[in-house]
Structures are given as structure tokens and as C-alpha cells.
Amino acid sequence: MAHVGYARVSTDGQSLEAQVAELKAAGAVTVHQEKVSGAVTDRAALTRAVASVQAGDVLLVTRLDRLARSTQDLLNILDEVAKRGAGFRSLRDTWADTTTAHGRLMVTILAGWPSSSGN
What we know:
This protein has one domain (3-112): Rossmann fold (3-Layer(aba) Sandwich), CATH 3.40.50.1390. With 119 residues, it is an alpha/beta fold. 39% of the residues lie in helices and 19% in strands.
């Protein structure tokens, strides 16, 4: 089982260093990094991160907002991770951990909750 990290900042003026250090401290062997707005759904490093996870692996992020900006985007990403037989965990949003029964329940509840963005 490998931990694969994904780190993202929105602007060139922001640094990825803190996220990368936190992900590595949590056991990430590889950290895919990019500087792009979270509103952009087609992100090259995220695509590589998801494609790299295998059955039993865990995709790690420091916070959910580093992964997705909308509920639908988050659920699509988590669905792709699950299809690969991998789990997902947010280090700071501890409820978002699909490697546990409680975390899977919380994600299921989130899936049924109306998005506040009006989508």
C-alpha cells in the first residue's frame, strides 16, 4: 500500500512547500504538485495522481479544497479513486477518509447533500 499525495495552490505567488512537507510527513511516497485554480477541473497533476493509485493505495491531500471546489467535482474524483481500488484521505478534514467505514459514511452523506453552489 502506497500513499500518493496531491498538492495544489492557485497562484504563482503561493508556495507548495508546506503542503508537500505535510503530505510527506503523513507517508506520501510521491507528491504530484501544480499551480492552477481549483475551479479548473482538468488538472494535469491531479490526473497523474489519480492514474497512479492502485488497489490498496491511498490518495492524500492536506485539505479538501486542494482537491475540488464543488461537491460534484469531489465526488467524481473520489469515484475514480474508488474504481481503482484505492482510498482517499484529507489530512485536515479528518472526516473525509474513505479508508474507514465512518469516512465512507460521511462521503455518502455528502453525496446526498444539496450543493451550496446552486448546481
